[in-house]
Amino acid sequence: MSKSASNARAKEDVAATLLLVDDDVDIRETCADILHDAGYRVIEASNGKEALAVLEARTEHPPRIILLDLLMPVMDGFAFLAARENDSGLRKIPVVVMTAISEMNRSKIHHDLTRFLAKPFDMRDLLEVAEQYCGH
Predict the structure, then answer these.
(1) Which of 2, 33, 55, 115 has its CA 20 to 30 A from that of 82?
(2) DSSP label of 120
């Protein structure tokens, strides 16, 4: 592969990267598999603390979108969103919350969110979100 083709492929990989944050292994693996099969690069984290560590390590090439569960141990999605609010770099990354929390309770979340995916969600909706923010 030529150097320019290699650089173009690296840029494409960065553009198609998502961060998937969910403590439920089955949900995380299923979503990651579907996204991988659709050609996206998925970085996984099982809680907000792991997600922040991933993002800290990827400051040069952050993911294009964060798919975030709210109810998790260690650091839940609410605490992650609060940390995101205090970081100008993280605020630039769109967040889609994946949650089973009722719509009424979702309205109490005052963070700059891009979208909600209500669990259980249709995998076509997940792929639509990926396409919208990462392209393909």
Answers:
(1) 33
(2) S
Report strand pairing: 41-45 vs 115-118.
Answer: unpaired
Render pLDDT for 41-78 as a digit per residue (tens, 0 to 9): 999 999 999 999 999 998 788 999 999 998 899 999 88
Three-state DSSP class for 16?
Answer: coil
CA angle 129, 32, 83 (to 5 degrees): 70
| Model pLDDT, residue 117 | 81
Spatial separation of the C-alpha atoms in residues 95 and 103, rounded to whole Å: 17
Q: Which residues pair with 118 in a beta bridge?
A: 99
Alpha carbons within 13 A on the beta-carbon side of 111? 27
SS3 (DSSP) at 129 = helix
Burial classification of residue 63, based on how many CB atoms lie within 10 Å of its CB (0-12 exposed, 13-18 middle, 19 or more buried):
buried
pTM over the 0.90 mark? no
| Domain 3-134, classified CATH 3.40.50.2300, yes or no | yes
